[in-house]
Amino acid sequence: QVHLVESGGGLVQTGGSLGLSCAASGRTSDANGVGWFRRAPGKEREFVATISWSSNNLFYAPSVEGRFTISRDNVKHTVNLQMTNLMPEDTAVYYCAARRILAASEQADDYDYWGQGTQVTVSS
Fold it and tell me: Which of 16, 41, 64, 111 sits at a 20 to 30 Å CA gap from 86?
């Protein structure tokens, strides 16, 4: 079993930056492909960014491309999401997810493990 814990959420003004971190524990050898997803109030969960185990493959949602950067440290078993130029529409609970397969994936159904989420609120 893999246990994922997100951290780094908070309140920020429009145009500001935040860094989220996802720490894996337990059977970390099963936390390979990792993705970030978010759910805004009243909306469905949506894909944000994903990274393969090797970091060779990174994909972003069009809405965050150029503003968000995903990265990972396989020694520390962490995956980070650096968010810049934040906008009110980025307000959501952000979740990290991990899968046993090494490849990145934009599909929530491809993931085996999920964290509890961290709130990001962007004020206008």
Answer: 111
- Report residue 84 as tokens: 């810049």
Q: 28: number of CA atoms within 13 Å, CB side? A: 12
Q: Is 46 exposed, middle or buried (0-12, 13-18, 19+ CB in 10 A)?
A: middle
Look-up of token digits 């970390």 = 28
DSSP string for residues in 26-69:
ESGGG--EEEEEEE-TTS--EEEEEE-TTS--EEE-TTTTTTEE
Residues 17/91, Cβ–Cβ less than 8 Å: no
CA angle 108, 76, 49 (to 5 degrees): 25
pLDDT tens digits, 91-100: 999 999 999 9
Tokens describing residue 24: 């894996």
